[in-house]
Amino acid sequence: MFKALVLDQKDGKTISEIKQLDEDSLPPGEVIVEVSHSSLNYKDGLAVTGKGKIVSHYPMVPGIDLAGTVRESSVPEYRPGDPVIVTGWGVGERHWGGFAELARVQAGWLVPMPEGMDAVQAMVIGTAGLTAMLCVMALEDGHVTPDKGTVIVTGASGGVGSVAVALLARLGYRVAAVTGRATSGDYLQQLGASEILSREEMSVKPRPLEKQRWAGSVDTVGGVILARVLAETQFDGTVAACGLAASVDLPTTVMPFILRNVRLQGVESVQCPFERRKIAWRRLQQELPESVLGEMESLISLEQVPEYAEKITLGQVRGRTVIDLKR
Ligand code: NDP
């Protein structure tokens, strides 16, 4: 038997309950992982609260990330005891996820734990951190180098934003951080931000083109803020857009694209191919020291997930929330 947070539907509402499940109830897959830690992402918040249509069918064990060790494997690539990570691939959405002591998954979804990283660190990073790294790689693909100017990160004290600020600063970029929280200034400066901008000032509807301020951006919020970032991006700049914490809309014009050669690059982590994932995880291990990861980390128990799920959907969670399955 193992412990899991199970979502179900009752009278059209999503309900969550901690249950003891039988190993036979696990979905099919090639590898059983003993999950030691998971993490809470925005998407998990939407799934657990039922505020967003994330879960394809019920009952569902949510949790889009997990880290632990292999218990059983029917493929030669993985052996019992191997430390592994899973993020994305529909885990916690279409396939039972990481908010449980055991998970059965496809071998192709696993990434071997990079040497020098442990399960807690992997889950401080999680999908949010992987996405931040993919955004940084998108900026590099767009030739945004530290000498080109400042990179602006929106939704900066959230999971993706925090890791993006820390990564960019470590890589030598000057980072401007946009936050709606007056209390986040010190935290963001500790992660490496040189400049803090208020959400309010970045939410003013822009003209089609504004003064050129940014060499690049990691945008986690969408909406008017993304439109303003685009209007303020300098010639040849790249904006990596990965999120919708503010809005799914993008009220912009074509002017930044056709007059300033601005590139808007979408970033998607769920189906990121294995080789790019491996590179991203290796770089995350190399670039993020323990002290920086510690700065972002909050540890909670499985029982606390519903409370934190609500908080993350309200933009009240700072940094990264790691779920300790043994707590
Ligand atoms: P978090 O909730 O941790 O962070 C989002 C941050 O956005 C908040 O902390 C807050 O930062 C800011 N924010 C919240 N509400 C608003 C608002 N109404 N207007 C402007 N800013 C707001 O979420 P994650 O970091 O986990 O995810 C961020 C986004 O990225 C989500 O939309 C998520 O769905 C998406 N995402 C996409 C992925 C992909 O593969 N494309 C993968 C992972 C996440 P502050 O308080 O500093 O203003």
Helix amount, in percent? 25-40%
Q: Which structural category do the helix and sheet elements fall into?
A: alpha/beta
Looking at CATH, the homologous superfamily of the largest domain is Medium-chain alcohol dehydrogenases, catalytic domain
Beta percentage is 25-35%
Radius of gyration: 20 Å
The number of domains is 2
Total number of helices: 10
Question: What does this protein look like?
Answer:
With 327 residues, this protein is α/β, with parallel strands linked by helices. The protein folds into 2 domains: 2-113 and 293-324, Quinone Oxidoreductase, Chain A, domain 1 (Alpha-Beta Complex), CATH 3.90.180; 126-266, Rossmann fold. It is 31% helix and 28% strand. It has helices at 42-49, 119-141, 159-170, 185-191, 199-202, 223-232, 255-260, 274-287, 290-296, 305-313, and strands at 2-10, 13-21, 31-40, 65-73, 83-87, 102-105, 110-112, 150-153, 174-179, 195-198, 214-219, 233-241, 263-266, 297-300, 320-324. The strands form 3 sheets. Strands 3, 4, 5, 6, 7, 14 and 15 form a 7-stranded mixed beta sheet that branches. Helix 10 (305-313) links the parallel strand 14 (297-300) and strand 15. Helix 2 packs across helix 3 (159-170) and helix 2 crosses helix 8. It is globular and about 60 Å long. The protein starts with a strand and ends with a strand. 49% of the residues are buried. Bound molecules: NADPH dihydro-nicotinamide-adenine-dinucleotide phosphate. NADPH dihydro-nicotinamide-adenine-dinucleotide phosphate (NDP) binds next to helix 1, helix 2 and helix 3.
